[in-house]
Please model this.
Amino acid sequence: MAGQSTRKFGGTGLGLTITKRLAEMMHGVITVQSEPGQGSAFRFEFPNVAITELAESDAIATSGEGDFTQFAPATILVADDVALNRALLTGYFEATG
Model:
């Protein structure tokens, strides 16, 4: 077999490459600890990230619906090869700016 089958293993392996690149662009680092048959643990470190305080009312969810009114209108790119995942995310943001 020349390479991994995307049907058998579920993807092309680009997710970690893209994640690593994004972490580095934000002056962070991603590390992994992995044991065959046991799984993998990924750690993200962003040492120079400013942390802000949330108002208590913003931190409490009042229902299962997300309140996105606190964010400025934005364009979000969703890149996922699973149609159900794309539809789920589209539903979350459907009636928002």
Remarks:
- The beta strands are 29-35, 39-45.
- The radius of gyration is 18 Å.
- The chain has a mean pLDDT of 77.
- Helices lie at 6-9, 14-25, 56-59, 83-93.
